[in-house]
Amino acid sequence: MRSLQSEVEQRGTRIFELVDKYPERPFSKAGFYQRLMALSMHDERFKTQLFQFVAVLPSLRGSSEIIQHLEEYFSDDNEGFSPLIGVGIRAARLVPWISAPVLRWNVSEMARQFIAGRNGNDVIATLRKRRAQKIGFTVDVLGEAVVSETEADEHAVFYGDLLEKLARETREWTDLLGKNVELFPVVNLSVKISALYSQISPAAPADAIAHVSTKLRPLFRRARELGAFINVDMESYALKNTTLELFKTILSEPEFKDWPHAGIVIQAYLRDSEADLRDLIEWGRARGTRFAVRLVKGAYWDYETTKSGQNGSNPPVFLQKPESDANFEKLTRVLFENNSVVTPAFGSHNIRSIAHAQAVADELGIDPGRFEFQLLYGMAGPIKRALVEMGYRVREYCPIGELLPGMAYLVRRLLENTSNEGFLRAKFAENVPAKELLRDPKELIKPGVTGIETPSSPSRPNQKNDASLNATAGHSFRNAPLVSFIYKDSQEKMQSALHEVRKRLGEKYPLYIGGEKILTDNLTPSFNPAEPTEIVGYGTEASIDEAERAVKAARAAFEKWRWTSVEERAQLLERAADILERRRYELSAVEIFEVGKSWSEADGDIREAIDFCTFYAQQMRRLGRPKLTQQVPGEESYHHYLPRGVAFVIAPWNFPIAILCGMAAAGVVTGNAVIMKPSEQSIVCGAMLMQVFAEAGVPPGVLNFLSGHGSVIGAHLVDHKDVDLIAFTGSREVGLKIWESAGITRPGQRELKRVICEMGGKNAMIVDADADLDETIMYSIYAAFGFQGQKCSALSRLILLEENYDRVMERLIPAAASLRVGNPTEPGIMVGPVIDEPAYRRILEYIEIGKKEAKIAYQAKEVPPHGYFVPPTIFTDVKPNMRIAREEIFGPVLSVLKVRDLDEALEVANGTDYALTGGFFSRSPDNIERVKARLEAGNVYINRSCTGAIVGRHPFGGFKMSGGGTKAGGEDYLLNFLVPRVVTENTSRHGFAPEKSPEYRDEFLWPKPQE
Ligand SMILES: Cc1cc2nc3c(=O)[nH]c(=O)nc-3n(C[C@H](O)[C@H](O)[C@H](O)COP(=O)(O)OP(=O)(O)OC[C@H]3O[C@@H](n4cnc5c(N)ncnc54)[C@H](O)[C@@H]3O)c2cc1C
Q1: Using a 6 Å CB cutoff, which residues line ligand 1?
Q2: For residue 329, is it left (φ>0), alpha (ψ between -120 and 50) or beta?
Q3: pLDDT tens across 504-521, in order?
Q4: What is the pLDDT at residue 83?
Q5: What is the Å distance from ligand 1's center to 423 Cα?
């Protein structure tokens, strides 16, 4: 008996022979497209520019806009490119009215190569042609990932109509092989769940399933009546578990339990794909009815690795291409072995993968009529033909739709065709020999290599990422990954933390002074803003006496702490980070109850606290080593830093653990003694942080916790002669008072007070005429309404170029109307309550002001009756001088301003008192450069949300009335807590001097630390 490998080789060789017999190019259209693909494969930079240009092109309207973009993308260094581009640009400059339409036509044609038609009518002709070639079809609708329920409804209707149309037009068609017809209905529709519900949150699969099933059920029902087949496609990893769960849930319902004509996709590039497939098969057996699985490698490899790289988490995909190939083969066998319950389809253009499936089917005696090969429209035509000729069942995946929504699909195809790792490129562009292409992928897996070698590859856990550029030897900083609520395990942990924390609601929390817990009868309740009758806990109210005690304790502790080694101080922060990580779910749960954060927002806050600890520990190790100023003979001068003394930290409630932790950790690690005061609205969160530091072993008096009224103890401590530094984050009103008051020198005061003052914003995002509207809407909605607009970074002014105004508004309002408003203990809630009653009233007052000043374009109608829920609100016709366009509202209220052009947009954006965050959506490289230079904001974000700064990556803080120009989570933040000092020594003795002084020396510590 021959080995499987030789069987595969034999079949593979046969396919190659047939493919070579019809020497059609794999990407069927020649000319423009061929040349661009060839160039892209040759030059990575060009490929990036080209794909970005292609993505923007359909949204450009006039010829001049097209030419302008063409120049911006390609002109400055066209020398290195092919004459195609250079000539194109020159021609375009001369005759824009001819060349721009030609270019657009060419790109449209390129897209049309992968898109089978604009609509159901269009596609029928293509399907007929394929039928003549003995190729079946599955039709897919482009434009996944809707931003509103209106769009989701439209998609559902479209799917329904399409199904009817396909059934009608193909009524007379019979099975192409004329056997096993019961397994393979002629009409086959592929659907994507992200097109059917706009509010899918991986944390809330039950909600997604409830919504998507209301759309899928009628489709399934009708498909059943018409004898059609529905396949549920698989998208990015975030949706995978929900998609699988949804599939099993609906098909287990009595109505569909015995319906065999539904299928789902398994992506072999996922590490957990085998477990998922086995689980599906087990489910299918228990259900007792056959179902189908399309096995693919997966279309989102670049997206998944980029996303995981950004989050610092392990990618869910294999990182070596042969691993995906080998897994595909393993799962091929699993599918065939379970052929009694599952009908397999193999979605691949890789001749090795295809030949392997054929060989395994033969080995197991499975009739070729009982499974199918599926290939994409516009790709690998010769392979399809070869398979038909060999007597296999072939189905083509035919996307339909307009160019604009089809861009994401087109770019995925272009990436696939030019991928260094891809089969198509190897075979058709690089002519790699058949023997090489038919090798067993298992042999090609490199042992010991767990991933791609990028600088921040999670496969190399101790590598420095970008935040660690100045790390000292042996230390590195990595952002803690966010918890992924995709996993059931994380969802359950969060639910159980909420359950546990709920049990202890109403507990009393002490002050912490000089290492002593102090609980008095003077208690302040902290309420749950979603259920204001619920008391989350009681904080002990500090009086002036206790504030005085805290200053004394801090002063006394400072004298010792200041001489504690940097290493010891840094390690304290690292221990705190470990405890925060250990208590992560519990602390998130406390935030959800106390300040109304959603699950992921709460987790983001704890992650930030962890990052502050580890980042500042690393930064202090760097700053803590005295550094030689110049190398000169006979003298050495070392520049180093001393702590300032007693630091008073005043934090807000909106990032109740992260900001408090960041300021306190910075104070402590720099050798200061710290008194921290949480906001009155988030005392319990503050008390939790104190517990964390106490457990981490902070020495008595080095960190003191005072809850109480800002107007009493806050004001007292700001003015105190023994307080040397104030770190404040909060409102402009309080910030300016502190700034002023700290400027007065009191009798007995030793130091000039240093104030770190971070205040509010009136943040603007500008939307350019060529912006990607899917991204614009998604990020703007999130930035304006996430955490109820209560982030200082939140979007409050959306500035639209008039050219784009209607198009944006048309989608923005339904997107806002689709948001889930509710109690954030429930997963997947986007908009919760605002912090308390005064905030609630103030925001409603602003809405009243807005109604008088401008036009209310949208306001949510239904919000929960209890709790401080403010309906998300959008104003239009807003002018720059109106109060709602100038004053910080700190709630879910968005003002939309219409402007003529980018000049005016910048003027409006910069025309407020604030400069905190700001952003720009555009695909014009020149406009992007201009905004990068000219937008007045401490943090400028292009083509993404203006919220969500990450420690070390996006040092955060503004200027003008947004703050004193400091950057939390940045390299120079700790310097604010330190005074610089230089120690100079004459090292020459009678003309003799040491040749060289070391660049760094040990800390100046006395008594010398014990070895
Ligand atoms: C009919 C059809 C339907 C499809 N439906 C879906 C779907 O619903 N969902 C979906 O996600 N995909 C789907 N795909 C798959 C996807 O679109 C790609 O076409 C497919 O992954 C390409 O694989 P291949 O075997 O043809 O090519 P090959 O060149 O053999 O494989 C390329 C694939 O290998 C993987 N890969 C690339 N680099 C690496 C690496 N460094 N480490 C590990 N793996 C790597 C990627 O998945 C990449 O797409 C479908 C494909 C077809 C043909």
Answers
A1: 233-234, 265, 267, 269, 294, 296-301, 317-321, 323-325, 347-350, 353, 374-376, 397, 416, 421-423
A2: alpha
A3: 999 999 999 999 999 999
A4: 55
A5: 10
At residue 68, the pLDDT reads: 81
- To the question of pTM greater than 0.90 for the whole model, the response is yes
Mean pLDDT, residues 422-441? 88
Which ranges of 504-647 does DSSP label H, i.e. alpha helix?
544-561, 566-582, 584-595, 599-623
Candidates 55, 53, 41; CA nearest to 92 is 53
| Structural contact between residues 29 and 108, judged by C-beta atoms closer than 8 angstroms | no
Ligand 1 atom nearest to 374, measured from its CA: 1
What atom of ligand 1 comes closest to residue 395's alpha carbon? Answer: 1
Q: Could you write out the DSSP letters of every residue in 211-260?
A: HHHHHHHHHHHHHHHHT-EEEE----GGGHHHHHHHHHHHHHSTTTTT--
Q: Please tell me whether residue 208 adopts helix, strand or coil conformation.
A: helix
Q: How far is CA 17 from CA 14, 133, 357, 433, 439, in A?
A: 5, 19, 18, 12, 17
Find the mean pLDDT for residues 469-478.
Answer: 68
- Contact residues for 950 (Cβ-Cβ < 8 A; gap 6+): 479, 608, 611, 969
> Is the model more confident about 85 or about 636?
636
CA of 109 to the centre of ligand 1 (A): 23
Query: Catalytic: which of 613, 661, 757, 792?
Result: 792
pLDDT value for 879: 98
Residue 84: both structure tokens together: 């195609």
Confidence bin at 533 (pLDDT 50/70/90):
very high
Q: Is 580 exposed, middle or buried (0-12, 13-18, 19+ CB in 10 A)?
A: buried
Give 245 Cα–ligand 1 centroid separation in angstroms: 22
CA of 266 to the centre of ligand 1 (A): 11
Pocket test for ligand 1, best of 114, 130, 267, 297 (most atoms within 8 A of CB): 297
pLDDT at residue 91, rounded to an integer? 63
Q: What is the mean pLDDT of residues 538-550?
A: 97
Probe residue for ligand 1, chosen from 135, 188, 267, 296 as the CB with the greatest number of ligand atoms within 8 Å: 296
The whole-number pLDDT of residue 452 equals 42
Catalytic residue among 546, 594, 758, 888: 758
Is the pLDDT score of 387 beyond 80? yes
> What distance in angstroms lies between residue 350's CA and the mean position of ligand 1's atoms?
9
Q: Is 758 a catalytic residue?
A: yes
Name beta bridge partners: 117. Answer: 400
For ligand 1, the distance from its centroid to the CA atom of residue 923, given in whole angstroms, is: 28
Closest atom of ligand 1 to 320 CA is 42
SS3 297: coil
| Percent of the chain at pLDDT exceeding 70 | 93
Which tokens is 447 given? 């042992």
Backbone CA torsion sign across 772, 774, 779, 785: positive
SS3 content of the chain, % helix, strand, coil (to 5): 50, 15, 35
Residue nearest to atom 33 of ligand 1 (CA): 297
CA-proximal residue: ligand 1, atom 37 (nearest): 321
Given a cut of 90, whether residue 664 has pLDDT beyond it is yes
DSSP secondary structure letter of residue 454: -
| pLDDT score, position 43 | 78
Assess whether pLDDT exceeds 90 at residue 164.
yes
Tokens of 439: 């090798």
**Mean pLDDT for the chain?**
92
Give the residue whose CA is nearest to atom 2 of ligand 1: 347
List, for residues 197-234, the tens digit of each pLDDT value.
999 999 999 999 999 999 999 999 999 999 999 999 99
Residue 778, pLDDT score: 97
Name which of 291, 293, 290, 309 is nearest 301 in CA terms.
309
What is the Cα–Cα distance from 502 to 589, expressed in whole angstroms?
9
